[in-house]
Design brief:
Length: 149
């Protein structure tokens, strides 16, 4: 199973977006999101991915409804964040650009310019309609608890 974690960094009416450099989605805009590494919590993974893709330090504040699919076996967890430090930097081999985009601009993007088109538009809708949840609904188990499951 693949677990994707990431976040929405919002400033005024803008969201920080990344432009993908991967071959399968080259040039498409996305939220800063990536695969959870083995041994890290979803919180740690989201903060790490956001930092790696944008150079920004964030605090996770809320979580959107979690997306799960069977084929491919995937879980996608997107957090709302508070921007702690804005220092835009990124690996140009993985990311083409990072920029603040107006929410309305993102909503009007053509399908082929936005990676995970439906999911990102749904994330924005959920954020705007406050369909968000406290981080308290997620509990990180320690090693002993994992062994007991």
């Amino acid at each position: 199973m693949r677990v994707l974690v990431g976040g929405i960094i919002r400033k005024e009416n803008k969201i920080l977006m990344i432009q993908e450099a991967q071959e399968n989605c080259y040039g498409q805009w996305n939220l800063p999101t990536g695969k959870l590494d083995d041994g890290e919590s979803i919180f740690e993974g989201a903060v790490r991915e956001i930092f790696e893709e944008t150079g920004c330090k964030v605090k996770l504040t809320k979580v959107l409804p979690i997306l799960s699919s069977r084929k491919p076996s995937l879980v996608r967890i997107i957090f709302l964040t508070e921007l702690l430090e804005e220092n835009i930097q990124f690996d140009k081999n993985e990311i083409l650009d990072v920029k603040w985009m107006e929410i309305e601009e993102i909503k009007k993007m053509p399908r082929n310019e936005l990676r995970a088109y439906e999911h990102i538009l749904e994330d924005i809708r959920q954020m705007e309609e406050s369909e968000i949840y406290s981080l308290d609904i997620i509990r990180v188990m320690d090693r002993k608890e994992c062994e007991e499951v």
